[in-house]
Amino acid sequence: MAKYMLYYATNRNHIGSDRWHPDSYGPKFSDDGMENLRFGVVTVTADQSKITTHLNTPMQDCGKGDGVTLGEYLSKCAEDAKIEAYEEVLGDHIAEAAQKRVKLGSQAMFADVQSAMENSSDVLIYIHGFNVSWSEAVGSALALQLMLRNAEDKDPNQDVLVILFTWPSDGMALPWVSYKSDRSEATGSGAAVGRAFLKARDFLADLRDRAKKGGKKVCGQDIHLLCHSMGNFLLQSALDRTFEHTPGNCLPRIFEHIFLCAPDVDDNALETGQPLERIDQIARHVSIYYNRDDKAMVISDYTKGNPERLGGTGAAHPALLHNKVHQIDCTQVVRGFVEHSYYLTGNINADIRASIDGWEQDDAKRLRTRNATLNNVWAMNK
Fold first, then answer.
1. The pTM is what?
2. In the predicted model, what is the mean pLDDT of residues 3-28?
3. Burial degree of 174 (CB within 10 A; 0-12, 13-18, 19+)
4. pLDDT 10s digits, 289-305
5. Between the CA atoms of 125, 29, 195 and 143, what dihedral angle is there, to the nearest 10 degrees?
6. Do residues 235 and 193 lie in contact, with contact meaning Cβ atoms separated by under 8 Å?
7. Pseudo-torsion of CA 251, 344, 133, 22, nearest 10°?
8. Contact assessment for residue 46 and residue 76, using Cβ atoms and an 8 Å cutoff
9. Are 229 and 311 in contact (CB under 8 A)?
10. Distance of alpha carbon 213 from its chain centroid, rounded?
11. Which domains, from first to last, does the chain contain?
12. How far apart are CA 229 and CA 223, in angstroms?
C-alpha cells in the first residue's frame, strides 16, 4: 500500500467534532458561511499495483491511461483518508487587517506549496463539477495528479502538484433538484473561490515585492487552473468577485494556463459582455476542451432549459475569441468509452500536460489537427 497526499481548499461543512481533524466534509456550506474557507492536506492510502494498472490501461483511440476508473477507485479509498486542516487564529468581530497575532490557514498552505514549487513543481488548481461528494472530489483530483505525472512525453524535470478546491456539490444524483441546487451553490461558492484568488494574488505580490528588495528570488514555476463541467459556472462568479476587489479595470494575471474542460456554461460565455469575458486577463493561455457527444451537456441543454453548452458544441463564434483562447474538439477520440470526464483520459490528459510543460499550441508532437480556416480551433486525432 502507498500513501498519496493532496492539498485542498473547501467551503464545505466539516463532519466530526474537530474542525482541524475532521472525519470528512459534507454536502452543505461551512457553518461559518459560504465564503468561509478551510485549507488542509488529505492523505489517501491505496494499492500501488491497482493504480499502476489504471495508469497503463489502453483507451481505444485515445492512448494510455484510464483516469476515470482510477478516480473511482481512489474515491473509495478517500472515504477512510486522513484529513488535517491548517489551524487558524482569526476573530470575526473586526477586519482581518486590524487584528493582531492572526494565523491564517491559507498562508500556511501557500508556504508549503511554495516549497514544492521551489523544487521544480508547477501547481494546478482543480475545481470539480456537478454532483460530486467530498470523497469523489478527492479521488478525481488525485487521479488528475497521477495521470499528469504519468504522461509519456512529460518534461522529466518538471513535476505537477494538484490543489483541489471542493464546493458543496450534493452528490445525491437527483436529476432535477440536485442540478438546480448545485448551480445555486456554485454561484455562492464562486465568491469563495474569488476570495482564494485574491489571497493568491496578495501572496504572489508579496513574494515579488520581497524579491525586489533583496529577498528570496521567485522560483519561476507556474500556477494553472482546471475547471470541469459546472466548475466553470463557478468560475464565472469567481471572476466577478475578483474584479470587484481589484483596482483599475483589469484582473491580475494569476495563472499561466486555464483549462475549461466540458464546461457547463453558455456557448457564448467568453464573448464581450458575458460572464467569462475577462478570462484572458487572468491567464496567459486558455484552452477549451469539448465533446459533441457529451450526454451531460445534452441534459443540461434540453432538460434543464439552458442554451447550447460550451462543453457540447464549443464556442458559438470562435472567430470572436481572444487570441489567447483555443478550443479543442475531443469528439472523435472519446466516443464510446467516456463522454464527460475525458480530461482524465489518455491523450487528452497528455495534451493538458503538454500545455503545462509549455508546448506551443501548434507543436508537431501534439496529437491534434488545426482547423483549415480558424487558427484557434483544433480537433484531437485518433
1. 0.91
2. 95
3. exposed
4. 999 998 877 665 544 55
5. 0
6. yes
7. -80
8. no
9. yes
10. 33
11. 2-380 (3.40.50.1820)
12. 20
Q: How far apart are the first and last CA of the chain?
A: 35
- The count of other CB atoms within 10 Å of the CB of residue 175 is 10
Compare 129 and 217 and report the one with higher pLDDT.
129
Over range 331-353, report the average pLDDT.
88
> When comparing pLDDT for 171 and 190, which is higher?
190
Please, where are the H alpha helices in 254-375? Answer: 279-282, 295-298, 310-313, 331-334, 346-356
Whether 346 and 59 have beta carbons less than 8 Å apart is answered as yes
Please give the Cα distance from 361 to 79 (Å, whole number): 39
Sign of CA pseudo-dihedral 258, 193, 124, 171:
negative
Do residues 260 and 227 touch, judged by C-beta distance below 8 A?
A: yes
Grid cell in block for residue 48: 500501488
Contact between 65 and 147 under an 8 Å Cβ cutoff? The reply is: yes
- Residue 330's nearest CA partner among 308, 357, 349 is 349
Surface-to-core class of residue 350, CB atoms within 10 Å of its CB (0-12 exposed, 13-18 middle, 19+ buried): buried
